[in-house]
Design a protein that fits this description.
The chain is built from four helices and four strands, in the order βαββαβαα. The protein is α+β, with helices and mostly antiparallel strands. The protein has one domain (about 5-135). The protein has a four-stranded antiparallel sheet with strand order 1-4-2-3, with helices on both faces.
Length: about 140
């Protein structure tokens, strides 16, 4: 089975203002088989820096964030991962730590492995920098 790259993102909502607007877009990515949800953790950092978290579990009725109906898994992340993610958060904020497999890239990743290729660098270019570059091109 070809496995695509697995990546994570931490999306912060200052002032604990997570309202669920990202859920439909994530649903589309999952239903279109663009990504496979690997793990989701919700992290809250109080004004004094206290960190609380809640790991997503598919089908759990107690999910107050609206993710419980999504097709996915849980259990990859551990306490150390969550605390490391919380280090980059601002106080008085909520964040969602998403881990997903890029299903769209699985065939390419398998071709690279089959060819003996090794990924030696990668990264993301921030949206703002792409906008600036496109505006000056």
């Amino acid at each position: 089975m070809a496995i695509g790259p697995v990546e994570y993102v931490i999306i912060q909502f200052p002032g604990n203002q997570f309202k669920g607007e990202i859920i439909p877009a994530l649903e589309d990515l999952i239903s279109n088989k663009t990504v496979r949800l690997v793990d989701v953790v919700f992290i809250t950092k109080d004004t004094d820096g206290t960190v609380l978290w809640d790991e997503y579990d598919a089908g759990e009725s107690g999910d107050g964030f609206g993710f419980a109906h999504l097709d996915g898994e849980a259990g990859l992340l551990n306490e150390s991962d969550v605390l490391t993610a919380a280090e980059v958060m601002d106080p008085n904020s909520t964040a969602v730590l998403l881990v997903w497999e890029d299903l769209w890239a699985a065939p390419f990743a398998q071709a690279v492995r089959n060819a003996g290729g090794e990924l030696i660098a990668g990264g993301r270019i921030p949206h703002e920098l792409v906008q600036i570059a496109a505006a000056t091109a």
